[in-house]
């Protein structure tokens, strides 16, 4: 549905992009050559900006090295093991449901199921929900994916069982059947590696900055030039 709402992605042809990029490159080169022939590089403003740029680059390179040195294969493996353990503890259900407008209709459907009627066929005939044409199939979902009342009823069911009483939500009255139960399967290490690296970078950087601030004994002052309350007590 998200893809449908987003619509087709627009790809700009190279024939359109190339002249724009080329024009920007040429303009940049022209300005660069003009600057080289001028005395701008001997100006105080240029020297100040150059020093600022050098400091920024030094900070960036230093931080990158400090962080990357700590993101070892062992750290990535430990992060993946933690992620995988969390994923495997998450239960998923595969379920079908039949949605109707009244409690009496839902009770009639439950009676039909008790009498041996096929759930999927009843869903195709009776359900007013969009999944009705697919036999009420909702696929797999985990806790937090569905509205609370629906979720609570579904996760209480055993595999192959259906609700013996209508389940009411803001959408109407549901009859739910659980087709399968399983633990969530974690993605592979290779699929997660990039995400884990990004997460570790953030955590490592936060830890490093915290340690460095402690070592530097940073004192903070408010807008009036007064020492921070915590610092003033020291």
List keywords for this structure.
234 residues, alpha+beta, Chitinase A, domain 3, disordered N terminus
Widest beta sheet: strand line-up = 2-1-4-3
Structural shape: elongated
The biggest sheet amounts to:
4 strands, antiparallel
Q: Supply the CATH class of the domain at 91-183.
A: Alpha Beta
SSE run: HHHHEHHEHEEHH
**Mean pLDDT, all residues:** 91
Which fold name fills CATH's third level, the topology of the domain at 91-183? Chitinase A, domain 3
The count of helical stretches stands at 9
| Amino-to-carboxy terminus distance | 58 Å
CATH architecture classification name of the domain at 91-183:
Roll
Structural class: alpha+beta
Q: State the helicity in percent bands.
A: 55-70%
Rg is 31 Å
Low-confidence segments: 1-7
User: How much of the polypeptide forms β-strand, as a percent range?
Assistant: 5-15%
Strand tally, please? 4
